[in-house]
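User: Predict the complex with adenosine-5'-triphosphate.
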Amino acid sequence: MPEQQSSNSNTDALGYIRTCKNYLRSASAVHHRTSSTAFAELVDNAKDASAKTVWINRVTARKNQFCLSITDDGVGLDDRGLLNMFGLGYSEGKLFKGGIGEYGAGFKSGSMKLGRDVLVLTIQKRSHRMFAGLLSRTMHDMEGLQDLTAVTVEIVEGEDGELAVKQDSRKHRQSIDMIKKYSGVVQSEKGLVTLMKRLREAKRSTRILISRISSDLEWEKEDICMKMPRDKHYRYERSLRVYLSHIYGKIRVRDQQKNPTIVLRNSEIIPVIWEKTLYHKGETSFAMRIESLRGLGRVQCLVGFKDPLNQYPGKPEKLKRRPENEPQGVIWLVNGRTVELFTPTKTQAGQNGDEKAWTKYSAVQAKGKGARIICELNLNNPTGLKLQQNKDGFQKNDSYYKLLAKMDEQLRKHCSQAMHKS
Ligand SMILES: Nc1ncnc2c1ncn2[C@@H]1O[C@H](COP(=O)(O)OP(=O)(O)OP(=O)(O)O)[C@@H](O)[C@H]1O
Ligand SMILES: [Mg+2]
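Assistant: Here is the predicted structure with adenosine-5'-triphosphate placed in the model:
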């Protein structure tokens, strides 16, 4: 039983609830259908920690064995922060202005989707203290541990300026043993200290090393290829570079950088500028009254037609649609981060009775096809929208459907204006 519970007489009567190790597997399976959203969780965390750059790379652990490395230059963590990061439900996302994390689950579900064991090295910017922590499914299995457990150690600088693991009795030896045995990347105390030294020299704050990585990931020269389930008969592949360039895209060229720069396998990811993917564009903004008592939420939108030349680079040839087959839809951005890449709206060819008129228009715009609305939301505004836990969309509540209906209305308006102009 945790100390704080047993020492408080008011809670003596309460039952301590176990968190079984299986939670790690279930969280990854429940929250992430694919590896792409798992990567995004880790980049989101770096963004919430005010990182300017995130590096995604691979590290050779042993011969022909690789692990994933996600490093950032954010604020870093102290020992309490690190344990909170491993814990369930604790979140500091909302404390950061414009933060996207709120559920206290993303790190666990995301890292465990990508691999089985995670070693975290972190240097807290404020105090310069250094910590390493291990969350490992292999450790639980091999050591017969049933309850969720993590290992942490502090790394300190000696008088000679050399780094070493802080010696605090028996715990220190045991922790180092666990890290050596199960991190999949560090084979000795010296190896751990060397990794920390490199992190410090590079002036980076938090490094997440994931080993025993999922077989759905394949290394490419400047990319990681993700094998995605589509349905039971067919799997397709997605480029992490293309995915992240969309998820951390910008709405306009002049937008100040809200998202960190992402360097994937030593090459910077160029964010998509949503404005450039549209032609015949216009801006629209409308307020939404939602049942909540918090008043009006203003929604800013960019409307237009999908640029037929912008055919999603990296998408397999057979999945590319011809412009005239493009559906209409909404692309959602929350606090500068794209959330739902595309939601088809119900207005489609013929439904608005304008079919004849549309056929006069160009092939792409005929029947309103390919019409897009890019919607900027700020979660501090009272729109009633709530993110799904994996940030891959919104909870399908009343507000969501109301907003979608408004979008549909705006799209119709824009389509008919565009038609009259031509
Ligand atoms: N790279 C990082 N740098 C600094 N702190 C981090 C980092 N990653 C995670 N944390 C800390 O760990 C906490 C838990 O992270 P986790 O992703 O599990 O939840 P969250 O981001 O708060 O919420 P959500 O489940 O919505 O993502 C964060 O609130 C943050 O305090
Ligand atoms: Mg998170």
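The two ends are 72 Å apart (CA to CA).
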